Amino acid sequence: MRRTLVWVALAVTALVIVGFAVPLAWFARYTATERDQSNAHRDADAIAAVLRVTTDPREVADALAALPAANRGLVVVRLPDGRLVGPASGPRASAGQWAATATSGRAGDFPVAGGYAHLRPVAVGDGEVAVAEVYVPEADADRRVRTAWLGLLGLAAILLVAAALLADRLARQVVRSSTALAVAAERLGSGDLGVRVVPAGPVETQTAGVAFNAMAARITTLLAMERELVADLSHRLRTPLTVLRLNAASLPAGPARDRVVEASEGLSSEVDGIVARARRPLVVRENGSCDLAEVVAGRTAFWAVLAEDQERGWHRYGLDVPVRVPVPAESVQEVLDALLSNVFHHTPHGAACHVGLRRERGAVVLAVDDAGPGIPEPELAVRRGTSGGQSTGLGLDIARRVADAYGGSLSVTSSPLGGARIALRLPTVSPPGARSA
User: Residue 124 phi/psi, 5° resolution?
Assistant: First the structure.
């Protein structure tokens, strides 16, 4: 943008210079020509005045010596008797031009080599005519014109440099304020809700800065309200959870009671985690890494109890070798719980479910296969809030957002078991302390 503004200023200045310089250059040429003609006519008038008084060659020569043009050998006088007074080089005009001027009695300008000659006839009495020639060389006019044109070019160069410097200075102010606004917007998009800008630059940029600050403040307020609402709603779950735990504790001792107590305690722990997470400062992406095989093994062991109760064909594979991914363990648990919850909720009892890892070059794929009815519209299923199975429509979207946040991807295809396959592809990282080959 800064360079563009400088080029615009240079273009406008160049157009203005051309608009003024061309007429000025033509006027300089015209003025130089008119000046030479005026000087030639003045010198001719001066010689004519002398010739009307005397035609004595000495007196005429003395009069010529007083003329600047004569000192340069530009003035020649032919007396009525044919004698020439002036430089040894003689006249520039031809004999015919001299004769025509003396016969007509009218002054005239005649082109000659290197310029033109102004011939002035002077009646000196008794029908005799003397003729004065003033030679005007074109080199004099060209020299003055070149000087004027060089001055114009120098002035144009100064104006262009001044316009470029001024435009660069003004553009720097605009670009600085625009860059600051862009950096602040990027920081806000990265989760820095406290970023603000100091409105600066042109009025339009200042207005944009004020609007940005107001928007950032409004976003901060709305997010704080929503997070408080999430925390409050999660906290409200504590009452029914307490009742559930008391009812579980009153059940007869045995495996069934233990599973219900374990499930209620796990649910209570999840609610506590939701409340704590809602209270933490908002970040778009949490840093950290985990052993994906270890996390998947732990969560599948938790869900295996429910799979056994529902008589599902439960199979796990690829969890014997550690594989590290740049995703926090909490995020992996959240994704896996969402995917397995969908399986148990949307497939009939007894439908098989396979969970495992498949390693690829520089990545690992976490696949969840089921023998349910499948997902007829995969693109619609990953859209947030949209569900074809009367659920919240958040499970697959949670998995997709985690994959996008950490450089992975999510795909929904058909499973070899006849149902749906949800594949989460994540990049892998070297374990801490490992040496690269």
Answer: -110, 5
DSSP collapsed to 3 states, 161-215 = HHHHHHHHHHHHHHHHHHHHHHHHHHHHHCCCCCCCCCCCCCHHHHHHHHHHHHH
87 φ/ψ angles, rounded to the nearest 5 degrees: -70, 160
pLDDT at 389 over 90: no
Nearest to 91 by CA among 31, 34, 131, 144: 131
Spatial separation of the C-alpha atoms in residues 141 and 36, rounded to whole Å: 7
Q: Give the fold, CATH level 3, of 288-427.
A: Heat Shock Protein 90 (3.30.565)
Closest CA to 396 of 324, 346, 360: 346
The architecture (CATH level 2) of 2-143 comes to 2-Layer Sandwich (3.30)
* Burial tier of 129 (Cβ tally within 10 Å: 0-12, 13-18, 19+): middle
> Tell me, what DSSP letter sits at residue 93?
S
Residue extent(s) of CATH 3.30.565.10 domains in the chain: 288-427
The pLDDT tens digits for 269-323 are 766 666 666 555 554 455 688 999 999 999 898 888 888 888 889 999 999 999 9
Cα(393)–Cα(380) distance, rounded to whole angstroms?
Answer: 10
Rounded CA-CA distance 316/238 in Å is 33
- pLDDT, tens digit (0-9, with 9 covering 90-100), for 107-139: 888 888 888 888 889 888 777 888 888 888 887
**Gap between the Cα atoms of 198 and 180, Å rounded:** 9
Entry pTM? 0.45
